[in-house]
Each structure stands twice: as structure tokens, then as C-alpha cells.
Design a protein that fits this description.
45% of the residues lie in helices and 12% in strands. By secondary structure, it is an alpha+beta fold. It folds into three domains: 75 residues, GIY-YIG endonuclease (3-Layer(aba) Sandwich); 38 residues; 48 residues, Orthogonal Bundle (Arc Repressor Mutant, subunit A). Strands 2-1-3 form a three-stranded antiparallel β-sheet. β1 and β2 form a beta hairpin. α8 packs across α9. The chain is globular. The two termini are 34 Å apart.
Length: 208
């Protein structure tokens, strides 16, 4: 079963987000939200309205699309910060809510410079090169790569879902500058993702 909800800005009394979740808790959660959503709630308080409760998931997706179409996204001249037109979400997530809370707590206010990140990466690679037959086997190297890939990397600003939405938006004709603004990342970052230079593990076969 699922719920459909909307978030209303208190400063303008206008809806800025339409969402669905497996229960009411999702409507009140601030975790796993887009950077665009976070920018809005950093400027104003908001109310949560439950539009539909205890309905089947397919119906919830249709209702989500209806309300997004009604209020329209900001990129379409409306008031919503929704990235998609709705109906394409998934109630399951690859990382548990508690896992996301743990990652958020451990990285709160943590700032790591590009130079530090580069040194950390070089250090890990050097260790594996210097220990080919000791503590860093090929299997361990692969495990290390998997653990730091995409949204599993504690320094990642995006999620796999964000990257998929970027690809969809590009297919819909959105400009790189628009995508960059929505996700609050540089245009270079967007270019590298769209060209497949980064986040290579995200499935792109559907874009062909």
C-alpha cells in the first residue's frame, strides 16, 4: 500500500513538492531528498498534507502524476521542485533509512578538499599496488571499488536515482545548465555523467 502527499511552503502557501511513499513516515522524512528540495526548506518552513492514504501503489503513481500535472514543475512554469513528471518512483531503496541516517550523521559538517580526496584515492591505489599478494587481493580490490562506487561513496553528492533522472531529463531536451542548476552540481559534473565518464555503473542501455 502507499500514500500520496504534498509539501506546502509556509512563506507563499503554495505546494512545492508532490510525493509518494509506502507509509505516512515518508511524507514527514527529510532524508533522501533532492538538493533542490533541500534549498527550499532551508529558506522556509513547510506543511505536510496527506492527499491519499492506504491506496495501492499503481493508483498512487497515477495520483502523483495527476497532481504534478495540476501544479506543474518550476521548470514547466509551475511551483513544484519535482524532478520528474511522476509515476516512475520505487518504494524500495538500495540503502536502508537507518543506513542513510548513519551516513548523514557521520558526514555532517565534514568538509574534504579535492586535494585530500585525491591523496586518499592515491593512497588506496598505492597500497594495492604494493601489496598484490598480501592483504589486497584482486577480490579485495573489486570489493573496494564496489563499496566506493556511486551513492555508496560517502563523499557522493548524487545518488544513482539522481543520475538516472539526469539522463531522462537530457533525453527530454533539458539543457546541461538547467540540469546543473536543479541538482546543484557543476556543468562539468553533468557533462561527465552524460558522456559516461563517471557513474559508469548506472544502466544506460535504455537511452540508446
Amino acid at each position: 500500500m502507499a500514500v500520496v502527499y504534498r509539501h506546502i511552503r509556509k512563506d507563499t502557501n503554495k505546494p512545492f513538492y508532490i510525493g509518494i511513499g509506502k507509509d505516512i513516515k515518508r511524507a514527514y522524512s527529510k532524508f533522501h531528498r533532492s538538493n533542490w528540495w533541500k534549498r527550499i526548506v532551508s529558506k522556509t518552513e513547510y506543511d505536510v498534507h496527506i492527499l491519499f492514504d492506504d491506496i495501492d501503489y499503481e493508483t498512487a503513481k497515477e495520483k502523483e502524476k495527476e497532481f504534478i500535472s495540476l501544479y506543474k514543475r518550476i521548470t514547466d512554469g509551475g511551483t513544484l521542485c519535482n524532478i520528474t513528471l511522476g509515476g516512475d518512483g520505487c518504494l524500495g531503496v538500495s540503502i536502508s533509512e537507518e543506513g542513510r541516517k548513519s551516513i548523514s550523521r557521520s558526514n555532517k559538517n565534514r568538509k574534504v578538499s579535492k586535494d585530500t580526496r585525491k591523496k586518499m584515492s592515491e593512497s588506496r591505489l598505492k597500497y594495492c599496488r604494493d601489496n598484490p599478494d598480501n592483504k589486497c587481493s584482486n577480490k579485495q580490490r573489486q570489493m573496494m571499488v564496489e563499496k566506493t562506487k556511486g551513492e555508496n561513496n560517502v563523499f557522493a553528492k548524487l545518488t544513482d536515482s539522481d543520475v538516472i533522472q539526469m539522463l531522462k531529463m537530457k533525453n527530454e531536451g533539458k539543457k546541461v545548465s538547467e540540469i546543473s542548476a536543479i541538482f546543484a552540481v557543476s556543468q562539468v559534473t553533468v557533462y561527465e555523467i552524460l558522456r559516461g565518464k563517471t557513474w559508469k555503473h548506472v544502466d544506460r542501455t535504455w537511452t540508446n
